[in-house]
Specification:
Elements (H helix, E strand, L loop, with lengths): L2 E3 L6 E6 L18 H14 L7 E2 L1 E2 L6 E3 L16 E2 L3 E4 L5 E6 L3 E7 L4 E7 L1 H5 L2 H12 L7 E5 L9 E2 L1 H8 L9 E3 L5 E3 L1 H11 L7 E3 L14 H4 L5 E7 L4
């Protein structure tokens, strides 16, 4: 199975799955009613590759919200065998528990991972354009600072493979929402000759982190664009696919 790692510290393990494996077998990770048995097989294959099982993984049923929740090992397995028992309407999770893999699904939307080194907390966030204008990454990070005693100077972030600005065409309706965000957003969109805009969603997410005093050198921004790297990622904008990659993270055991 092809995995793109976020290599940061020995304390954590984090990857993004690719659309196809080495034998060019489809590696869709999201239940959509089309071939859920294959999805389950792919998920089990991934768990085996990571030396774990589905009971040590957790997924939400994402709905482009800014809702997030704290999860623990007792939640392991939720959303793994079907969507029926997934946490519905949450687009981010965080945990203090070791060996619990947090999943986020994406196919152009931006996966964001956080690691609070001082408190040993990891988070997985799904930030599509709705989540980005709703500032979900800022909300989760602020919560960790204010409620979980994470110090900004000890927080690290990964802004994962997603649509790049040069390929993210947005109309006035989205830009008007971008303009209503809590900070100056004009540096993050460019007006084209046809009246549409090119939107830098990765930049908007990075700025939310910078506004909370996360050091810029602690923020890794993936160079991959899901529209251009079709050999590696599914792209909803390009093909209207129901397939999804996942970006996932766990806190390693320290024993």
């Amino acid at each position: 199975m092809k995995l793109i790692p976020w290599q940061l510290f020995n304390d954590i393990e984090a990857y993004t799955t690719c659309a196809y494996d080495e034998q060019h077998q489809l590696m869709n990770m999201s239940f959509n009613g089309e071939d859920d048995q294959l999805v389950l097989k792919n998920r089990k294959k991934l768990a085996t590759e990571l030396n774990t099982d589905l009971q040590h993984m957790v997924a939400t049923f994402q709905q482009h919200t800014t809702q997030f929740l704290k999860v623990s090992l007792k939640d392991g397995g939720k959303g793994m065998y079907s969507r029926d028992d997934a946490f519905i309407g949450y687009d981010a999770m965080y945990t203090r528990d070791e060996n619990l893999w947090l999943w986020t699904f994406h196919a152009d939307c931006c996966p964001v991972l956080l690691y609070c080194q001082d408190q040993k907390i990891v988070a997985a966030i799904h930030s599509g354009w709705k989540g980005t204008v709703g500032e979900i990454v800022g909300k989760v990070t602020k919560h960790l600072i204010e409620n979980e005693n994470c110090q900004p100077e000890h927080i690290y972030a990964y802004i994962g493979p997603s649509i790049e600005q040069k390929n993210f065409e947005a109309k006035d309706d989205i830009i008007k929402l971008v303009q209503k965000m809590s900070f100056e957003t004009s540096p993050f969109y460019i007006k084209k000759d046809d009246g549409n805009y090119l939107l830098d969603s990765k930049g908007l997410i990075q700025q939310q982190l910078l506004n909370l005093k996360i050091p810029i050198q602690h923020i890794t921004v993936s160079p991959y664009c899901t529209i251009e790297n079709n050999d590696l990622f599914f792209s909803y904008r390009k093909t209207k696919t129901k397939y999804r990659n996942i970006t996932l993270i766990r806190l390693k055991s320290h024993s």
